Amino acid sequence: MFKLTPPLGWNTWNTFGEKINEQLILDAADEMVRFGLKDCGYEYIVIDDCWAMKERDENGKLVADPAKFPNGMKALSDAIHAKGLKFGMYSCAGTLTCAGYPASYDYEFIDAATFAEWGVDFLKYDYCFHTPLIKAKYLYRRMGAALANCGREILFSACSWGIDETQKWIKTTGASMWRSTTDIFDSWSFIKKLTAQQKELHPYNGVGCFNDMDMLVVGMGGRGNVGKESGCTFEEYRSHFSIWCMMGSPLMIGCDIRSMNEETGSILMNRDAIAIDQDPSCNQPYRITDCRYPDEDVLIYARLLTNGDYAIGVFNMGDAEHSADFLLDEIGLPISCGKTLLMRDVWSGKEEMPKNNTVSVRVKAHDCRLWRCKVV
Ligand code: GAL
Fold it and tell me: Which of 23, 49, 171, 258 has minimal Cβ neighbours within 10 Å of its Cβ?
């Protein structure tokens, strides 16, 4: 399935792990609509690992656990579609999923047909328990072929964590997104680590197949399956979301949206940040001033947007307040062009302009500035 902008949705894994069931999914879908997330573009409701019975049926088909999903997956998918949302599920290229449930190795076509029958719109495809005898690219091509021939449009979301230089072959599989990072956990150190893992991968992100930096931890507050101690602060979650948007990652919410507070909503539903993520050109974000700030503490990124605007972000990944400045020359606006930027802060709404072709800011530890800028 060809996707023009990064997919947006919600996934069960970060908060619920194996504790999933039909009612939870339906409640989350309702909340997605009620809270306004759907209006902001979030559309996929994705069930991650742990939904199946431990054995296939006599025809070799996967079976949904009736204790968790008493009405089966088709009924659930119908209910999700009736709310105007799309339905996602999960399998794995190995013999078992990461949590030990049956997976799709050598059952690719049967499973793709089952997902099509159930009305699935999105398949996350993991990489645990895979045979060492067959390279990742062949295993992902198998499921890619099966999905492309299953009679239904199903978005293929590959999750091999960047192994075997996934970026070099993933576009041969028909995948619309691919995990370009290891797993996220709800702490600043993981946000910093995953951001750094993207450094060499930006050129591979673009229309049709997106670098997936993993599900968001915004709003988790340390609770749930990938929760860690106290989680992150509001500023850290805001930086996390800003980085994922600047880098054009799919945005898959991972918190419990049934109990989401206004603060979390103010991050996840910032339409200006989402518009940067969803910018139709999907131009490559690039780092500027990396000579001046060679370590990974101060990251300044820019991205040219479809209408000629720029997204610019200063991310203080370090543990101390930092000042940062950059010249507009670096984004293609030398003094000689006679142009400057009208910069609107995505989070405060305030407008500012550079002085002498230079933007100069101080940013607190783990905080960020993100602007949408007009060339004037
Ligand atoms: C991991 C994957 C996670 C989650 C988990 C389920 O491999 O990266 O996002 O899907 O498996 O067991």
Answer: 23
- Residue 291's pLDDT band, with cuts at 50, 70 and 90, is confident
Q: Which atom of ligand 1 is nearest to the CA of 179?
A: 8
What sign has the CA pseudo-torsion 129, 135, 141, 142?
negative
**pLDDT tier for residue 292 given thresholds of 50, 70 and 90:** confident
pTM of the shown model: 0.97
216 lines ligand 1 (CB under 6 A): no
Quote the CA–CA distance of 43 and 270 in Å, as a whole number: 16
Share of the chain above pLDDT 70, in %: 100
Interval between CA 126 and ligand 1 midpoint (Å): 7
If pLDDT is split at 50, 70 and 90, which confidence band does 3 have? confident
- Residue 264: which of 289, 286, 238 has the closest Cα? 238
- Ligand 1 centroid–CA 48 distance in Å is 8
Q: Which residues are catalytic?
A: 126, 183
Domains of the chain: 8-277 (3.20.20.70), 286-375 (2.60.40.1180)
